[in-house]
């Protein structure tokens, strides 16, 4: 996989290869200055540009900041002879219903495969736009403008769509935007604590799955990340996208599974938490549990487990008490793990840079789930 970089002032451009294509990443404190011209070059012959946002809960209007960004991008596109149209989606975020709503909007606008879709929103809106863009007329150009750090971090591995009561079930393996724009300085400055820590948790998961070098680099700059150093934040976000693009570009299904490290246990916990725990807390517990599970299978060495623990702590992804019964959590693991396949598999690290889909014996899984429950209900007790 190759990557080329080019910097102009506060607008940094990075081209990262991914499956069958590449993604042009524009970051910095002024990445939108040439947006219209760059989209004209990307599309070739400007005609229609559909700028999509999501409605704020309980309204039919976009969030004010999203609406402002959408209006600015529409003006820039108009200057390059695009005809902008704005859509505000009101269906359940990240759902197949919202995807259908977008498709109906594209149809009403007369959108073709030669036109441009611009998505302004969080990770759920970006997921809907990515999947729809890959399907509409066999594929159309998507420029993603994420409004949170976590949405930026997930840009080239968007979430699958929810269907009914089942989360993240409908999607394609290789989906992503053609271009990605983010004022990373503003996103980091304005991010909620949950957004910041969720992004850092995804960085840890991705770095350990990528390589010992990536894990060491992230550990070395953890202090700067927490301090909010703009250049460090931008560099690590681009590195994360590069790593996740490499996973998904692989012909090996096992390597693609690497992108799910920590997610199986996190998903099981999410079923039982009733929204009381943040995305970062869920993924952090997933990473801790799955690393220990791998060590229990004599695959991952204890030093790596402890290094990951230290990195999670440094990045503010702390443990917290949970009051769960082992049988209840074990059943949740089975339910979540079998949502997408007929076997309960975990993405377990064997070493930094080697994460593999692994079927775990029920007795061993029960032992680790029981130990985890005991450690969280009695946090002062040694694990």
Overview of the structural elements:
The chain is of the alpha/beta class and about 375 residues long. It contains 16 helices and 12 strands. It has helices at about 35-45, 65-80, 95-110, 125-135, 150-155, 185-190, 195-210, 210-220, 220-225, 230-250, 255, 265-275, 280-295, 300-315, 325-335, 360-375, and strands at about 5-10, 10-20, 20-30, 50-55, 85-90, 115-120, 140-145, 160-165, 165-170, 180, 345-350, 355-360. It has an 8-stranded mixed sheet, with helices on both faces. Strands 8-9 form a two-stranded antiparallel ribbon. A two-stranded antiparallel sheet has the order 11-12. Helix 3 (about 95-110) packs across helix 4 (about 125-135) and helix 13 (about 280-295) crosses helix 16 (about 360-375). The longest helix is centred in the middle third of the chain and has 20 residues, at about 230-250. Mean pLDDT is about 90; it is low at about 1-10 and about 380-383.
How would you briefly describe this protein structure?
The protein is α/β, with parallel strands linked by helices. The protein has helices at 35-43, 64-79, 96-109, 123-135, 149-153, 184-190, 193-210, 212-220, 222-227, 230-249, 253-256, 263-273, 279-296, 302-314, 326-337, 362-377, and strands at 3-8, 11-18, 21-28, 48-54, 83-89, 116-121, 141-146, 161-163, 166-170, 179-181, 345-351, 354-359.
């Amino acid at each position: 996989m190759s990557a080329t970089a080019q910097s102009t002032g506060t607008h940094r451009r990075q081209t990262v290869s991914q499956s069958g294509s590449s993604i042009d990443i524009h970051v910095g404190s002024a990445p939108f200055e040439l947006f219209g011209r760059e989209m004209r070059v990307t599309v070739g012959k400007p005609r229609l540009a559909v700028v999509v946002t999501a409605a704020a809960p309980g309204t039919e209007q976009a969030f004010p900041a999203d609406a402002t960004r959408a209006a600015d991008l529409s003006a820039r596109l108009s200057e390059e002879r695009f005809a902008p149209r704005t859509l505000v989606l009101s269906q359940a975020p990240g759902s197949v219903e919202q995807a259908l709503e977008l498709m109906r909007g594209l149809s009403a606008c007369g959108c073709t495969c030669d036109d441009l879709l611009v998505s302004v929103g969080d990770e759920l809106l970006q997921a809907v736009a990515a999947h729809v863009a890959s399907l509409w007329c066999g594929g159309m150009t998507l420029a993603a403008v994420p409004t949170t750090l976590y949405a930026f971090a997930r840009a080239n591995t968007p979430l699958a769509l929810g269907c009914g009561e089942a989360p993240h079930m409908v999607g394609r393996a290789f989906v992503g935007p053609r271009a990605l724009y983010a004022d990373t300085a503003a996103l980091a400055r304005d991010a909620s604590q949950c957004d910041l820590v969720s992004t850092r948790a995804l960085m840890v998961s991705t770095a350990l799955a990528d390589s010992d070098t990536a894990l060491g680099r992230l550990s070395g700059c953890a202090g700067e990340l927490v301090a909010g150093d703009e250049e460090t934040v931008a560099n690590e976000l681009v590195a994360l996208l590069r790593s996740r693009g490499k996973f998904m570009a692989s012909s090996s299904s096992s390597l693609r599974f690497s992108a799910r490290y920590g997610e199986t246990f996190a998903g099981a916990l999410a079923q039982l938490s009733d929204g009381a725990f943040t995305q970062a807390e869920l993924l952090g517990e997933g990473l801790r549990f799955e690393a220990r599970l791998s060590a229990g299978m004599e695959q991952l060495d204890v030093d790596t487990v402890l290094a990951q623990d230290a990195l999670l702590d440094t990045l503010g992804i702390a443990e917290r008490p949970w009051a769960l019964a082992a049988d209840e959590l074990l059943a949740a693991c089975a339910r979540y793990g079998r949502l997408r396949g007929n076997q309960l598999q975990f993405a377990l690290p064997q070493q930094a840079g080697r994460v593999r889909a692994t079927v775990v014996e029920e007795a061993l899984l029960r032992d680790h789930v029981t130990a985890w429950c005991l450690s969280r209900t009695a946090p002062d007790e040694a694990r």
